[in-house]
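Late entry, FE2/S2 (inorganic) cluster complex.
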Amino acid sequence: MPARPLCHIDGLEEGSARGFALDRRGRDTMFLVKHEGSVYGWRNDCPHWPGSPMAWRRDGYLNRDASRIVCSGHGAEFEIRTGRCTLGPCLGSSLSPVELKIDAQGWILAALDVDTPVPPRD
Ligand code: FES
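Prediction complete; structure with ligand written out below:
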């Protein structure tokens, strides 16, 4: 699976998230979170309702204090490091990780099969 460049690590602020529409359909396929100096990649696909996008606004994947990923659908909260749901209707289930690499120049690359887009929400 080819690695796709997303952004430079210096372009992602600590405690922030950013979505990427890699399938070019206008909706985020995945998002990054920079948390405590590390970068995590997750599919934009809530395990409560598979196929449901999560952000409440552009890049709005985190709660107020940026300590958890939150789904705008029904308020599920997820650990940033593990993707495990710790609060809400999908308690115990997990987000789908996106494998990331950071190259020698600091570009974040994602290994993601974009031929499997996030299905549209009904
Ligand atoms: S769709 Fe995400 S919590 Fe229900």
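Confidence is low (pLDDT under 50) at residues 118-122. Will revisit in the morning.
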